[in-house]
Amino acid sequence: MEFLESVFILPFLDIADSPVFFLEVVIGGVLSGVMYSLVALGFVLIFKASGVFNFAQGAMVLFSALTLVGLMEQGVPVFLAIILTTALMVVLAILIEHMMLRHLVNQEGIILFMATIGLNFILEGVGQIAWGSDVKKLDIGLPDTSFEYGDMLFNTLDLSAALIAAVMVTVLALFFQYTGTGRALRAVADDHQAALSVGIPLKTIWIIVWSVAGIVALVAGILWGTKAGVQFSLVLIALKALPVLILGGFTSVPGAIIGGLIIGVGEKVVEVYWGPAFGGAIEGWFAYMLALAFLMFRPQGLFGEKIIERV
Amino acid sequence: MFYREAGQFKTNYRSDQAIFPIIQDRWFIALVLAVAFIVIPMFANEYWFQAVLIPLFIYAIAAIGLNILTGYAGQVSLGTGAFMAIGAYATYKLCTAFPDLNILIIFVVSGVFSAGVGIVFGIPSLRIKGFYLAVATLAAQFFILWLFNKVGWFYNNNPSGTITAPPRELFGIMITGPEAKAMTRYYVCLIFLSVMALAAKNLVRGRIGRSWMAIRDMDIAAEIIGIEPLKTKLMAFAISSFYCGVAGALFIFCWLGSAETEAFDIFLSFQILFMIIIGGLGSIMGSILGAAFITLLPIFLTNVPPMIGIPIATDLSKHIEEIIFGVLIVFFLIVEPHGLARLWQIAKEKLRQWPFPY
Predict the structure, then answer these.
(1) Window A:13-32, CB contacts with B under 8 Å
(2) Which residue of A224, B16, B32, B277 has the fewest C-beta atoms within 10 A of its own C-beta?
């Protein structure tokens, strides 16, 4: 009875009690949701264009952030370091295409998925050998202060993160919608063979997509790194991105964004209000359970393409 | 020359359906078992038992379990660690609740518990597959470990939050707990592995295994020829989890002695997954080879470079190990998607013709 009360009644009383605090929790959730969205976005880009479920996205976030921090520690100015890291991510994309994807054409999705798990380990290892495995502080000059607006407390870093993410998504959307390359990317996503037959170079497209995913990873890495320090646990956000994708649908860019926001907000709200009833730390599995429940009713996600296949 | 089936005539159906139809194979298996049961205990020391052989056998059991699910039935699972945890915690609870019960029975019953939970988390597989299913099993992974961490009942509310193997004996010999000798625990694990590997081998070449493979290769076609997806998939989940559960029980009781939930985290699940990828999806032999490979590689990397005069720092060798894992996984997927088991098979084919290749 007490348990039921703490699940069904008390949280709502708490919310009604202090709407400002609730709003703060929600905003906190939105901001961490933006981060999830950024990682999920990298997944979606690659999945759309090559049908590869890129498990290494988290490792790419770690790798790019480590490289950036490493370069800055060597005394390279921020701006140059970012450009160098971007270049490195492009080189990485080319290497991945040459050494891995090219040889795995026509393999089943699950084989490719496992190959990216391998890639994940390579990137983790190389990144940590090259730049060390300590927790590092990343500071590229984003302001990090708090201010009050109305009754609520805001953090400028979180706000700029949200802003950067929004700009990123807009740029990507425009790129996909209005440039020739973007159109080619969408064509490849729709049908590999048809795209090939009208003369779209598949290999180049893959390199572009992996480069873009690398750059998205860099942005995510910068934001996470500034917030929580560059450390090994960045890899784990790849796992968090999975439920986001399930929710949003594997092939939808807006889905990734909205899925990320839902998971981010849901996690925070549930942890703050329902956490005590379950003994806390339910953040760890809530996202997966939500995704699992969601899968039961809408396997293709909120915005995903409907897979017409019955078992 | 010495490995070919020429001259071995089968005169009845029994010998035609034998598990190892060629006499050389039977000799080979007998030899391996003899080495494992007699020769190794004569020479191995504590370090070899504790650091190499016991974990190898336990991982091999878990890998067979996952291979049944992923390799044979085609359902990807990232929740192996959680199912192992269920086996371990169930053993602990049963052991402390019924101190007089035979420990072997407890191991098996814990496997059954694990199978039950496996069925529950296998239900989504009826509607979803592939990556989506992987996420569903991730839910199992995180939820179950959280549960074991949060609910004190599972670890008898002891303040450290760990479960410790209580001393239990079988036929007057200590097999768990701090006083159990490494060699005894080695034998327990070896016997479990031998029996379970044999059972798995027979399962997968029989009716059940064939229905798993049919579901894996094309579920719609399988359903049309009369294989029930519901029953088949859930059975794969149940049996796979049973294996993982027993492996988890041995993991704590015959190897580590005591552990927290962290021992069963997502990285354990990945490790087992790598074993079956490198060993070979859809092969019992491959599971064992893969387990051996993944267990021996780190030991090789930590011991060999200093021996030949190249000192490598511990954290560096850990990262190198990661890279080698990664490279090997990609390499195997590109060159030989069927893993070590396939290489083994090719070697046997070559051997059949050697030294007269015509």
Answers:
(1) none
(2) B16
What is the spatial distance between Cα A52 and Cα A251, in angstroms, rounded to a whole number? 11
What is the rounded CA–CA span in Å between residue B343 and residue B339? 7
Residue closest to A295 by CA, chosen among B63, B106, B138? B138
Per-residue pLDDT tens digits for A40-89: 888 887 887 777 778 888 888 888 888 888 888 887 788 888 888 899 99
CATH number for position B106: 1.10.3470
Provide the b/e sequence for B281-311 (b: ≥16 CB within 10 Å).
bbbbbbbbbbbbbbbeebeeeeeeeeeeeee
User: How many angstroms away from the CA of B57 is the closest CA of chain A?
Assistant: 24
Q: Does the distance separating the beta carbons of B132 and A246 come in below 8 Å? A: yes
The secondary structure of residue A103, as a DSSP letter, is G
Cα distance between residue B158 and residue B96, in whole Å: 12
Residue B10 belongs to some domain of the structure: no
Total domain count, chain B = 1
Task: Assess whether pLDDT exceeds 60 at residue A309.
Answer: no
Tens of pLDDT, residue by residue over B230-287, are 899 999 999 999 999 999 999 988 888 888 888 888 888 988 988 888 888 888 989 9
Residue in B193, B279, B286, B308 with CA at minimum distance from that of residue B243? B193
**pTM value?**
0.85
Tokens of B299: 């030991």
Q: Is B89 left (phi over 0), alpha (psi -120 to 50) or beta?
A: alpha
B338 contacts: CB under 8 Å, gap ≥ 6: B280, B281, B282, B283, B286
**Which domains does chain A carry?**
2-297 (1.10.3470)
Residue B113: both structure tokens together: 């518990």
Q: What 3-state DSSP class applies to B268?
A: helix
Cα torsion through A36, A41, A42, A43, rounded to 10: 90
Cβ atoms of residues B107 and B249 within 8 Å: yes
Instruction: Test B333 with A111 for CB contact under 8 angstroms.
Output: yes
Q: Which of B132, B316, B322 sits opposite A299 (nearest CB)?
A: B132
Task: Tell me which chain A residue has its CA closest to the CA of residue B273.
Answer: A114
Across chain B, mean pLDDT equals 85
The answer to whether residue B24 sits within a structural domain is no
Query: What mean pLDDT is reported for chain A?
Result: 79
Write the residue in B124, B266, B277 that is nearest to A292 by C-beta.
B124
Q: Which residues in chain B are closer than 8 Å to A310, comparing Cβ atoms?
A: 220
Peptide bond into B355 cis (omega under 30): yes
Q: Is residue B37 one of the residues assigned to a domain?
A: no
| pLDDT at residue A295 is higher than 90 | no
Q: Which domain holds residue B302?
A: 45-353
Q: Is the predicted ipTM greater than 0.90, yes or no?
A: no
* Interatomic CA distance for residues A85 and B133, integer angstroms: 35
Please state, in angstroms and rounded to a whole number, the distance separating the CA atoms of residues B58 and B76.
21
The H-assigned helical ranges of chain A are 2-8, 10-17, 19-50, 57-73, 78-99, 109-131, 156-178, 180-190, 192-197, 202-228, 237-248, 253-269, 275-278, 283-297
Residue B32 lies in a domain: no
Task: Write out the DSSP string of B160-178.
Answer: T--EEPPPEEETTEEEEST
Separation between Cα atoms, residue B108 and residue B128, nearest integer Å: 30
- On chain A, the residues whose CB falls within 8 A of the CB of B317 are none
